[in-house]
Design goal:
Elements (H helix, E strand, L loop, with lengths): L13 H25 L4 H21 L7 E3 L5 H11 L1 H20 L3 H7 L2 H20 L18 H24 L6 H13 L27 H32 L8 H15 L8 E3 H9 L6 H15 L9 H17 L9 H16 L2 H23 L4 H18 L1
Antiparallel strand pairs: 1-2
Helix pairs in contact: 1-2, 1-11, 1-12, 1-13, 2-10, 2-12, 3-4, 3-9, 4-9, 4-10, 6-13, 6-14, 6-15, 7-8, 7-13, 8-13, 9-10, 9-11, 14-15
């Protein structure tokens, strides 16, 4: 009977959902700030995306719930991808890229193609992709751990007293964060985020450190109209949007599998319903220049352990984030090193995901490491394509040369697997 319980609101859990939403909302702030910075998007736009996605997620839960405690937001795994998009197409064209991504996700949702995606792009290749992205994130924010205010920079000495002091502060903060996460991750994973925010804000009152700067950009509605001038750019945009859509879908499917395991009432997730909320939120955000979204596992786990039982907690999270969208100047109380600690740890967690690949065997582990290296060195789009090509070539050669199987039989088995997935759905 638990599977038929309302997903959006239940009066018996309202107190727990409010408390969970407040806790998770505060935890989501530094994480969302860091992801927006990594994506080269204005912080205010990133937070607005989270708030809008939370609202859509809650509304969707009344109609077609995908999961019961998942927390929507901007995803760390997509941050460097969006940064590449900004660098390649310009911020003025990113609204159209997000709109196109949403259209592709709508098609995937309409035909329930998420069932087949993991057959084409195996989970261990995705873990390698995320590991490469995690390394990019960790190294990107490493600079913040020793960045000094301009007036404290010594022209003749890099490691002056002020920089050494900031490095020690950052290392101590990271060590404290890791210790608290290890201690509280199964009880209340928001604790290290609360502590690092409070400690950072307090320390900044006594030590001169670089502070977060939030550009108070105007949020306005506009049609996502592209400004491309040649066919080659159009082709690249379509390929880029397809990659963005598929990665977003895969991450959501994988998150739902984990969210289902931690659901307090053991309710079943419906990944295709989650995709409905995702593409609607993505399409809507494209009209105010927003980013992509999905139900992130870190925030969803925090939401669960904070006591959430329904998606009403997500509405509260959206309210918390909206407060900072309206009052972004409060974020400037946060020192950069505190944001760096959160994002370096996030990057490490993505790299550590490679350990999940070990049960797939040596081949999967090697391919995951190779994918991570390619993504880091060559680029996310190009690295993923090369890894998929290598994966396909290895299977083709093993089947045709070692197993002596004809190409016709290999193709037949592939389509048989597709039909089997369809019949089981």
């Amino acid at each position: 009977m638990a599977a038929f319980e309302p997903a959006a609101f239940q009066a018996q859990y309202v107190g727990r959902d409010i408390a969970a939403g407040l806790i998770t909302g505060v935890m989501a702030i530094p994480l969302s700030v860091g992801i927006a910075m990594m994506s080269d998007y204005p912080i205010k736009v990133g937070l607005a995306t989270v708030a809008f996605a939370c609202m859509i997620g809650w509304i969707n839960a009344w109609i077609r719930p995908g999961n019961f405690i998942g927390c929507p937001g901007i995803a760390a795994g997509l941050a460097p991808v969006l940064a590449i998009g900004v660098a390649s197409f310009g911020m003025e064209n990113m609204a159209f890229v997000i709109f196109l991504t949403a259209v592709m996700q709508a098609i995937i949702w309409r035909f329930d193609w998420q069932r087949y995606i993991l057959l084409v792009v195996p989970a261990y290749l995705v873990e390698g992709l995320l590991a490469g992205i995690g390394l990019k994130i960790a190294l990107k924010f490493l600079d913040f751990t020793y960045e000094l205010p301009v007036e404290l920079v010594a022209a003749d000495t890099f490691f002056n007293e002020a920089r050494i002091q900031l490095l020690l502060i950052s290392l101590t903060g990271l060590g404290l964060f890791v210790y608290l996460f290890t201690k509280f991750r199964h009880i209340q994973p928001a604790v290290p985020y609360f502590v690092i925010i409070a400690a950072g804000v307090t320390l900044a009152q006594f030590v001169h450190v670089p502070m977060l700067h939030v550009e108070d950009v105007p949020l306005s509605l506009a049609l996502p109209i592209p400004q491309f001038d040649n066919a080659l750019t159009w082709a690249y945009v379509f390929g880029f949007a397809a990659m963005l859509a598929v990665i977003d879908v895969i991450e959501q499917v994988m998150s739902n599998a984990a969210i289902q395991k931690i659901d307090p009432l053991k309710r079943t997730c419906n990944s295709n319903n989650s995709l409905l909320a995702i593409w609607i939120a993505n399409m809507g955000s494209s009209f105010f220049g927003g980013m992509t979204n999905l139900d992130g596992l870190a925030k969803s786990t925090t939401n669960r352990l904070a006591g959430a039982y329904t998606k009403f907690s997500v509405l509260i999270i959206g309210c918390v984030v909206t407060f900072f969208v309206i009052n972004p100047h409060y974020l400037e109380l946060l020192p950069k090193f505190a944001v760096a600690i959160v994002m370096i740890f996030t990057g490490w967690k993505m790299i550590a995901g490679l350990m999940h690949v070990t049960h797939h065997g040596p081949y999967a582990l090697v391919l995951a490491f190779l994918t991570g290296a390619l993504v880091y060195k060559v680029g996310i789009f190009e690295g993923l394509l090369v890894a998929m090509a290598i994966h396909g070539a290895v299977h083709y050669l093993v089947d045709t040369q070692a197993n002596k199987r004809p190409v016709k039989a290999i193709v037949g088995d592939y389509f048989s697997n597709l039909r089997k997935i369809s019949s089981e759905s």
